[in-house]
UniProtKB/TrEMBL annotation:
Stored PANTHER family: CARBOHYDRATE DIACID REGULATOR, DNA-BINDING TRANSCRIPTIONAL ACTIVATOR ADER
Protein source organism: Pseudomonas extremorientalis
Ranges of residues in domain Purine catabolism PurC-like: 7-126
Taxonomic lineage of the native organism: Bacteria, Pseudomonadati, Pseudomonadota, Gammaproteobacteria, Pseudomonadales
InterPro entries registered for this protein in UniProt: CdaR-like_regulators (IPR051448), CdaR_GGDEF (IPR041522), PucR_C-HTH_dom (IPR025736), PucR_C-HTH_sf (IPR042070), PucR_dom (IPR012914)
Protein name: CdaR family transcriptional regulator
Family from the record: Belongs to the CdaR family.
Domain PucR C-terminal helix-turn-helix: 338-395
Length: 401
């Protein structure tokens, strides 16, 4: 649970602090207070700070204040606090207020008569309390999702005391951000770390907005949250909402990519561990099957539900190698060729022209490859039973890729 700008403004003793612009950022999470002593802040903040701007150590004319706002937006700080009074910054320029409002950056006015030590002490204490409460709330949700409890009633009672409203039916959502290795290969490691931190913070903020006031569990580019879903209709609305957010987001994130898996609907608190497992299976399918566009719901898995239910991984591997072992060995020795061909052929439902186009090869080349596949495997693609076996083996291969 994080402390927001709105929470800071509501703290006892800080009533004289006024929000002057940037109402759209009231829910920005505050990581820590930071007093700006230099002409700029870009080198000194990491994102999420509530930055206090005085004129004590550096003159703050309109141009400098506009520069600070630009850097605050660039570094994704939580908000700016301008200390005003007769001695240093007499008033906040109108142009700064308009720019902050347009950027959605909270801009707060604090009179110099309100001592800074009282402000930072109030915020620091609130941050500690918020962190402790957040850890307790996270612990309740993690126990529900793992089934790690002796008494569900006691755990739900504890959640109620912490402000967690867990009654009802839910859908578990799991998200995973991938592709960071591509970023590190392209740029300076320190700059990439900053970029990744910004992306994580942006995703966290969005997820908190849709999480119905419940904690968003997350670390290292992986997140879990609950969405209300009393029936299949509500689950469909959740799916569409996430898809509408995910598709344009992944265009902006490239080469990073976010994947989402959702459980089935209508899980009461007693079945959240099962829902967690369903969401994990759906996430695996979203990551391995590109045709799902990065998002999958457990109800869409079809036969993959059966494959995911096989706990003996060796049994699946045995089936894969019995059916497609010669192709796997061929591609391991000569490079990926026959397996991608077989996959394209299946994806296009046996349409040689479409499969050739998908692989960017001539149709005759594809025909020769298909003949080679049948010869190596001893299977016939025109035989319905052989095609069923091959299709299942391909799914196992994709899940283990």
């Amino acid at each position: 649970m994080s402390l927001t700008i709105a929470d800071v403004l509501a703290l006892p003793g800080l009533e004289s602090m006024r929000l002057r612009a940037g109402t759209a950022g009231l829910e920005n999470g505050v990581r820590w207070p930071y007093v700006a002593e230099n002409s700029g802040i870009a080198e000194w903040v990491l994102g999420g700070e509530l930055v206090f701007v005085t004129g004590i150590n550096h003159p703050r004319d309109e141009g400098n204040l506009m520069q600070l706002l630009e850097e605050a937006c660039e570094r994704q700080v939580a908000g700016l606090v301008i200390l005003t009074g007769p001695a240093y910054i007499q008033a906040i320029p109108q142009r700064l207020l308009e720019a902050a409002e347009a950027a959605g950056m909270p801009l707060i006015e604090q009179p110099y008569s309100l001592k800074m030590v009282l402000v930072t002490q109030a915020i620091g204490s609130a941050l500690i309390q918020s962190e402790q409460l957040g850890r307790s709330r996270d612990d309740v949700l993690e126990r529900l999702l793992t089934g790690d409890y002796q008494s569900l009633d006691l755990l739900l009672h504890r959640g109620g005391q912490l402000g967690l409203s867990l009654a009802g039916h839910w859908q578990v959502v799991q998200l995973q951000l991938e592709g960071s290795e591509l970023l590190f290969a392209q740029g300076d490691a320190a700059a990439v770390e900053v970029q990744l931190a910004r992306q994580h913070d942006a995703i966290n903020r969005r997820l908190r907005q849709v999480s119905a006031g419940l904690p968003v569990l997350g670390r290292a580019g992986q997140w879990t949250l609950l969405l209300p879903a009393s029936d299949a209709v509500a689950a469909l609305v959740n799916r569409q909402h996430l898809a509408n957010w995910l598709n344009p987001l992944n265009l902006r994130l490239a080469p990073l990519k976010l994947f989402i898996g959702l459980s089935a609907a209508a899980h009461p608190p007693a079945r959240l561990a099962q829902a967690q497992d369903e969401a994990r299976q759906a996430l695996a399918a979203a990551r391995r099957f590109s045709e799902r566009a990065g998002l999958c719901v457990y109800d869409e898995l079809g036969v993959l539900k059966l494959l995911s239910g096989v706990r003996d991984r060796a049994l699946l591997d045995q089936f894969l190698h019995e059916r497609l072992g010669p192709l796997l060995r061929h591609d391991a020795q000569h490079g990926p060729n026959l397996m991608p061909t077989l996959e394209a052929w299946f994806h296009e439902n046996g349409n040689l022209v479409a499969a050739a186009q998908r692989l960017a090869v001539h149709r005759n080349t594809l025909t020769h490859r298909v003949q080679r596949i049948e010869a190596l495997c001893g299977l016939t693609l025109d035989n319905s039973y052989d095609r069923l076996d091959i299709g299942i083996a391909l799914m196992i291969w994709r899940l283990s890729a």
